[in-house]
Specification:
alpha/beta, Rossmann fold
Length: 134
Amino acid sequence: MDNSIKILVVDDSEVVRVNILYQLRDVFDETNIFFAETIDQAWKTLNENKIDIALIDIYLPGKNGADLINDMLANETFKSIPIIVITGTGEDSFVKASFEKHVHAYLHKPIDNKKLISSIKNCIGQKNINKKAS
């Protein structure tokens, strides 16, 4: 696996962030996994690092993950970053419907390791295809 892949995880739950770190660190370089608890922290990380993939929780304090996704899609610099939605509820079909064309995967908490790694690998493959087409 490409150890240079930079992954941003946006979730306000420390338990979820630690769980994701444990799942990813055997496959990806731990120093390239970034965490944000809030939208403001997410934007700081996005602006300071060349993020390759974003895992975004929909339900965050203040502005929510859907706002972040909309803002990223509207921004020329960030709209090509593959997004994986992580959610704690199955009752967010309205969110899934609104982002279906723009989100690469939806993962429900607790996040299954095989689905997480598979979703990220699919995003990496898609980014590589898009680079070759450009």
